[in-house]
DNA sequence: GACTGTTCAGTGATAAAGTCACACAGAACC
DNA sequence: GGTTCTGTGTGACTTTATCACTGAACAGTC
């Protein structure tokens, strides 16, 4: 049964029709939800799990743009839906994900008949735009060592003690080269802040960086 | 009289009301349309001219995110309008600009009553998202010398022979440091591709870069 | 004209990050 | 066991960023 906050805003009649018109699906880790160039068949609502959205540029390098999780809307799909152009990025399931797809016709009807639905869509768009603007600034101006430590700290803050991730994947997260990550991690290991093993990073003593402005 | 393609999509009655509800304004070069933190009072439609949107990060550095020109919609404003949060970026008029502001109430009514208006808004959003994704990739992975030459070539392609711009402004365009631009421009001058003077860059012999993959 | 303050540009030194090339270790498969 | 593949470590080098400073070009004042 689909649980998504944007559905809660609908009136009874619309909600009933919507629930009847969508089907929820489960996707296992590693599954590619869509890839660059593909066309979009409907608007996915993420009910739970975690999906990363990344793009590969002309240079052949990849970078993770943002993640979608519980209660998110796949903003990228809206653009594809409206303009008819293919996706520019690809979406890869990280943790087992449940999602509902709103087909085009139903989406149009919801946009037409529910101001609350429209508001939800626009808010989602606004947040995504904000995220991307912040990412641009981060990529352009922040130091790699800081970005890496912040990324690891965010994971530590979620309670994760041991990460299963390769240096290459981490490089894609931050939009840099694998060697850069390897060297920075080695340095953190020397300082006793992480433990390294093949495909694993153990978060031991990450400390807040002091005054590195 | 406001000329904007999104108004053409409206039916006679809505268009009449819309034209009555908006007022067009002119802004001179250098004028700041909005700056970071400010709140948004309506949706600007750009009728003509050129506006650059740039943000300043925690690092204190600035980067130009995109430009708005004739027939554009200020997508950033929609997010602010819907979420009530302040702008994250600032908009600066480059060439004398004419714009019409659609007030909040009218915007809501148009979203409610015109599927074509909604489509226009969503398309505009999709394009902006695409632009930003491409920018992320460019900033993360492309070489500065190539980006600079491409930027100059784009101006040359518009027919501009002499640019009035400082090295610092150009650095903000590309999200780098002024010194980097100075050095790269000097190199281009040595190769006879540009002429340099205080506050001016003359585009003489820019040639396509050959196989710099 | 000379004097002053401001903005813009040039450049050396150094540090950080990206690129290239390759060695080697651990895991997986026969 | 051996072979293959993937992931990691590292040296050498290039590009970009940062810091510190110099001097040139311009505007305003006397």
TrEMBL record, chains A, B:
- Please name the Pfam families in this protein's record: cNMP_binding (PF00027), HTH_Crp_2 (PF13545)
Which terms are listed as keywords in the entry? DNA-binding, Transcription, Transcription regulation
Organism of provenance = Marinobacter vinifirmus
PANTHER family given in the database record? CRP FAMILY TRANSCRIPTIONAL REGULATORY PROTEIN (PTHR24567), REGULATORY PROTEIN YEIL (PTHR24567:SF26)
Q: What is the protein's given name? A: Crp/Fnr family transcriptional regulator
- Per the record, what is one GO cellular component? cytosol
KW Ubl conjugation (keyword) present: no
Keyword Mitochondrion assigned to the entry: answer is no
Q: Which domain of life is it from?
A: Bacteria
Q: Where in this chain does the record put each Cyclic nucleotide-binding domain? A: 6-128
Residues forming the HTH crp-type domain are 142-207
Which CDD domains does the entry link to? CAP_ED
InterPro entries in alphabetical order: cNMP-bd_dom (IPR000595), cNMP-bd_dom_sf (IPR018490), Env_Response_Regulators (IPR050397), HTH_CRP (IPR012318), RmlC-like_jellyroll (IPR014710), WH-like_DNA-bd_sf (IPR036388), WH_DNA-bd_sf (IPR036390)
Q: Which GO terms describe its molecular function?
A: DNA binding; DNA-binding transcription factor activity
